[in-house]
Amino acid sequence: PYITVTTMLNRTVALLLAAISCSHAFTTQPSASAPRRHMTELYAEAEDDMSGRRTFLTTVAAVIPAVAYAAPAFASGGATAGKYTTIPIAKRRYYGRVQEAVHEFLLMGPAVIKGDLTDPTVQDFFDVTKTVVVPGKKKDINGVCNKKDGDCKATDIYDSRYNDMKTTMYLLGNAFRINQQKAPDNLPTVKAAKKFFKTMNLFERKVLKNPSTNDKAATALYAEALDQLDAYLDLVELPPTESGHYDKEFSTLVGESSR
């Protein structure tokens, strides 16, 4: 569990109050013989006492901002319970899926340039039955199926590559932040991703509703989306589309493709 800045400040203030209380408790009280002391001695002791307390308060006042500043900028473990994923963790989780999506997006290029939205590379990119987004887990125990119905087969969850691209681009972009207070929609990375989505959603409608073999408007949308994708990739520290980096396929398993 992470200690919040508020918790650390509360603890620091508590220590401060305890220290002040202790200083009062252990302050030398005047004895019966005090009236017989020289007045200058009493004034000197009082001044030393106040000086010591003043030094202590000054030190604590300097420590409090330092403690607050030293608080971790990123929470770990995901976007639940008010926390969000750190950049290194997000890269391990989403880099592979984002890069594979870019790879398949670029595969559409030759067909889209011709305006052919019926090409398999174009249709497959938006087909919700083509891409395994969550691999199924086996239900047997050491190879033995204990289910009453005898069904221990792994069940994969399918969706389109484009839908998975939207999810992972958003989650990856949301990790590139410096504090928890800034809303995701205000992050440059998320703004760039949504700009790409807006263009690609228009392209998707053409592919799914009435695909043609000579759609010049779709070609223009694809070109616009390509520029927007490059802007996003730069913000999340990935190579541009023309780098040749995406000519290969990428593993979409967590932790297997941090670059």
Topology:
Layout: H1 5-25, H2 39-69, H3 87-107, H4 109-114, H5 120-125, E1 131-134, E2 157-159, H6 161-175, H7 188-209, H8 216-235
Antiparallel strand pairs: 1-2
Helix pairs in contact: 1-2, 3-6, 6-7, 7-8
Quick structural summary:
Helix content is 55%, strand content 3%. It is mostly helical. Helix 6 runs antiparallel to helix 7.
SSE order in H/E notation?
Answer: HHHHHEEHHH
Q: What is the helical fraction, as a range of percent?
A: 40-55%
The low-confidence parts are 22-44, 63-82
Shape: globular
The CA-CA distance between the termini, in Å, is 29 Å
What does this structure look like?
By secondary structure, the protein is mainly α. Helices cover 55% and strands 3% of the residues. The chain is built from eight helices and two strands; from the N terminus they run αααααββααα. The protein has helices at 5-25, 39-69, 87-107, 109-114, 120-125, 161-175, 188-209, 216-235; strands at 131-134, 157-159. A two-stranded antiparallel sheet has the order 1-2. Helix 1 runs antiparallel to helix 2, helix 3 (87-107) packs antiparallel against helix 6 (161-175) and helix 6 (161-175) packs antiparallel against helix 7. The radius of gyration is 31 Å and the shape is globular. The relative contact order is 0.12. Mean pLDDT is 76; it is low at 22-44 and 63-82.
